[in-house]
């Protein structure tokens, strides 16, 4: 089986480039996907986005069958979703939580992450580079596994 990393994106990330660029930057999700594919080398990338929590759970479960790691930007579901927490725990593969902004420096309701409690690690606050840093961490974990 070829090595694969699934990059999963939550709600409103389809609006990147136009949604609050002062917080999220001017790059679109398609721009970020291209950057990630270029950086992945010989690792297969599956890139998905949904505004629907249940679809994100399905994507995580699919990654558990087909991938060696997940890079997940859960967006607003970071702070509310026990379902994402449970899915990450259930699949048992390394999961890197990423955020474009720094949630801890924003509104108080953004300071709790249920996803962080299940993730292998978290990268936040580096804009689109958060994806590259998360991908680098995932690649390192995939290459280190037997």
From TrEMBL:
<comment type="subunit">
    <text>Homododecamer.</text>
</comment>
<dbReference type="InterPro" id="IPR036441">
    <property type="entry name" value="DHquinase_II_sf"/>
</dbReference>
<dbReference type="InterPro" id="IPR018509">
    <property type="entry name" value="DHquinase_II_CS"/>
</dbReference>
<feature type="binding site">
    <location>
        <position position="73"/>
    </location>
    <ligand>
        <name>substrate</name>
    </ligand>
</feature>
<dbReference type="GO" id="GO:0003855">
    <property type="term" value="F:3-dehydroquinate dehydratase activity"/>
</dbReference>
<feature type="binding site">
    <location>
        <position position="86"/>
    </location>
    <ligand>
        <name>substrate</name>
    </ligand>
</feature>
<feature type="binding site">
    <location>
        <begin position="100"/>
        <end position="101"/>
    </location>
    <ligand>
        <name>substrate</name>
    </ligand>
</feature>
<dbReference type="GO" id="GO:0019631">
    <property type="term" value="P:quinate catabolic process"/>
</dbReference>
<dbReference type="Pfam" id="PF01220">
    <property type="entry name" value="DHquinase_II"/>
</dbReference>
<dbReference type="GO" id="GO:0008652">
    <property type="term" value="P:amino acid biosynthetic process"/>
</dbReference>
<comment type="function">
    <text>Catalyzes a trans-dehydration via an enolate intermediate.</text>
</comment>
<comment type="pathway">
    <text>Metabolic intermediate biosynthesis; chorismate biosynthesis; chorismate from D-erythrose 4-phosphate and phosphoenolpyruvate: step 3/7.</text>
</comment>
<keyword id="KW-0057">Aromatic amino acid biosynthesis</keyword>
<feature type="active site" description="Proton acceptor">
    <location>
        <position position="24"/>
    </location>
</feature>
<dbReference type="GO" id="GO:0009073">
    <property type="term" value="P:aromatic amino acid family biosynthetic process"/>
</dbReference>
<comment type="similarity">
    <text>Belongs to the type-II 3-dehydroquinase family.</text>
</comment>
<feature type="binding site">
    <location>
        <position position="110"/>
    </location>
    <ligand>
        <name>substrate</name>
    </ligand>
</feature>
<protein>
    <recommendedName>
        <fullName>3-dehydroquinate dehydratase</fullName>
        <ecNumber>4.2.1.10</ecNumber>
    </recommendedName>
</protein>
<feature type="binding site">
    <location>
        <position position="79"/>
    </location>
    <ligand>
        <name>substrate</name>
    </ligand>
</feature>
<keyword id="KW-0028">Amino-acid biosynthesis</keyword>
<keyword id="KW-0456">Lyase</keyword>
<dbReference type="GO" id="GO:0009423">
    <property type="term" value="P:chorismate biosynthetic process"/>
</dbReference>
<dbReference type="InterPro" id="IPR001874">
    <property type="entry name" value="DHquinase_II"/>
</dbReference>
<feature type="site" description="Transition state stabilizer">
    <location>
        <position position="19"/>
    </location>
</feature>
<feature type="active site" description="Proton donor">
    <location>
        <position position="99"/>
    </location>
</feature>
